[in-house]
């Protein structure tokens, strides 16, 4: 099957130089990444950890024409089509891939990503180029984190939270995948519809190495693919006016540790960024495990940053809505933008890309005797490596070839990590439902 697409708004106004550059990029070593991301967004709703082998006859080409650009799809997934024509939302996601993978790759190839200021400015520029930095008079964007592998009752709960937020005119930003990323968007869409809100925002932030396992769900109407996990995490906290954390696995723990490491920075002590952990009554054990791990490793100050509000969507939504006034007042008092939190201090250790190789995972400083922000950064990297070994193509391959990642450190800390990770495994939070989990890590507890 061969389908030719005319670009939608925005990409139909490219110059011939821009078209030539995109076409050249699509035939460069970047092509494999481009094809993989394009396949993921075309196969929306496909919840699998192994996407590419199922569609090995798929291909995509960019064709230069006098009037601009055409997109050629060869054997696209049926999920992308209705009666032989591509779904509009799916084509929007596909054009986001072209924009963020091909266009941005050349635009930022000379950016010094070891420079903290340049990193923050580049993330802003990527978001602005994607038209997601929008003028607003009142903060209203709620970032929702949680697992792609959650129980049915937890999924229903995330939808109810989204619904209550939507009824109160709040918008949603997630990692854009299934599970706890899809539920809040779906609920908010219904809430917005009831309130006749026609410009509801369902912002999905992802990155290339994870997009196959967490392909954009069909509710996402603004998709941005950041260069790597660190840029994605910074984008989340820069655009967030509040953060809600649902039950999840290693990826959610990574996000939480990243957030806590930043908020523990003394420069961020006055920041107003509400953090709520919530889920149904049956998820209390999960939150108890998380709270205990946070307090026993990062201290009471870190634990006090978290507000646990189980089993009460209305109360959670009311709390978040009320906090928007405080967020606005704080941003106004320091002269910061509502759309992008420039005043949030993020240390370089949280910005630099971490390669979860066996050598780098083994070299992590996992000892309690260090500043809490540095410990949080190391723990974040450890959980990031576990996510890579679980679902990212390169990480999964590395584990198959060399065996599990080895994590070594302070015996007390390693016991706490082992306990938390085993709880995730027992609760079925490390893989898609129905699949048996084979640990990609090994924790060394040396007395």
From TrEMBL:
It catalyses: AMP + H2O = D-ribose 5-phosphate + adenine. It is an enzyme of class 3 (hydrolase). GO terms for molecular function: AMP nucleosidase activity. Residues 324-443 form the Pyrimidine/purine nucleotide 5'-monophosphate nucleosidase C-terminal domain. Its EC number is 3.2.2.4. GO terms for cellular component: cytosol. Residues 5-107 form the Pyrimidine/purine nucleotide 5'-monophosphate nucleosidase N-terminal domain. This is AMP nucleosidase. It comes from Psychrosphaera saromensis.
